[in-house]
Amino acid sequence: MKSDFLFGVNVIGNVSSNIGLGVLSRGVVSLLLEKGVPLAIYDQDPGMGRGKHDLSFGRYMVESVDQLTHDVNLLVLPPPMLVQFLLDHGSHLLRPECMNVAYCLWELPALSAAMKGALECCDAIVAPSQYIRYMCETHLSQVMMVSAKVLLTMPDGIQPARRSFGLPEDKIIFICSFEPHSDSTRKNPFAVIDAFRRGLVENRRAHLVIKLNNARTGGRVHPVVDALMERCKGDPRIQLLTDPFDYRQALSLYASCDVFVSLHRSEGLGLGLMESMALGKPVIGTAWSGNMTFMNHANSCLVGYELIPVNSTRNVYTRHKFDARVVWANPSIADAAAWMKKLVDSPGLRAHVGAKAKHDMAQYQQTAKEASFVDELRTIWTNRDFLNSGREPGGSYDMLMEAIKSDKAMARSLARQYSRNGKALLAQGERDKARELFRTGFRLNPGYFKNNARLIRSYVKF
To answer: Which residues form the domain of 426?
Structure first.
């Protein structure tokens, strides 16, 4: 058996980013350090200026995957990102002596062939919600499943500050917050606007705030901003906030409001809902998907739904990648409107639900601090020499490649990406790096390269 002292973990993810994945990754790092686990971090940049915002764990970070020193890799990445990361770094990660663990964050109840292949290259899956665990258990074979509760690393002393955010002092304020790049169709903020207008027609005591995280990236405003402004036109009670906030400011904004609203179609977890409950706020939320791990009818204001086919325009959620029957929830506007009206009219109910939410989230957090998933991973690591006899340890790069090739849409998309990046590297004189990208892209989709004469000539030069 492997000696216990050899259990050290490389955390791979958007650790320093200002997105939900960053908050979750930092929570994971905090738990590992609290358990005394030797640690190294590869901080993957999510792009669009969203990385390098929180460097509190900078002393553990390395510059490249090759510098990671431990044999256990904990990849805090959604399945689409996991596919490409393993494809790019499989030669280092998918070695027999490594144990690869996917901390799985995914919103749909289905996986594409490429995502399934990437997850089955891992030795274990950590599932931060019951929804994610069930999805993995019903789609994956020969991968150990471990449940985890999510630690919120919220700073102390979060206080309301309505004036600093330009919010009215004398209103009942509802807030909806989302990251546009996470897909506005899935996050569904337009339904919140519709419910607010339906339930609180001309009610001047009510106010709605819609906060967009990373509304402007690369100097450009996300298109959903204009669409939201058009939908809100003519209603001075609805306020859009698009300025960038750090984590403390975002939490202070939640604390400044009375009710958090999420009429999502699907959530892998629901971080904003968790944070608002921890702050003692009543939460109106769709009664479906990952948030139901910590929400119930006693501590939340749950909204009914109808299951409908997934209809996102964002590439990673498009139906052609999955079984045609894949669905998500369409929340009831009527239910949400009724909750909004009730909470405006009943301050006692707001206080009661908020207090119950805070109590239950405090209990959840107490359990999260135990980090039992770390103990389970340590045991899997210790025992893996005499277990896993039916599968190749560390997964297989060839197995991953075949899974991606069977997912024609993913293979074509990655081949295009590798060709673009390869050309850029050639222009910079990085011939060796370009060669590797061309080779990988060619393996994924030879037809794309054969039909691109200019690119194939560049490839043949090597």
So the answer is: 407-460
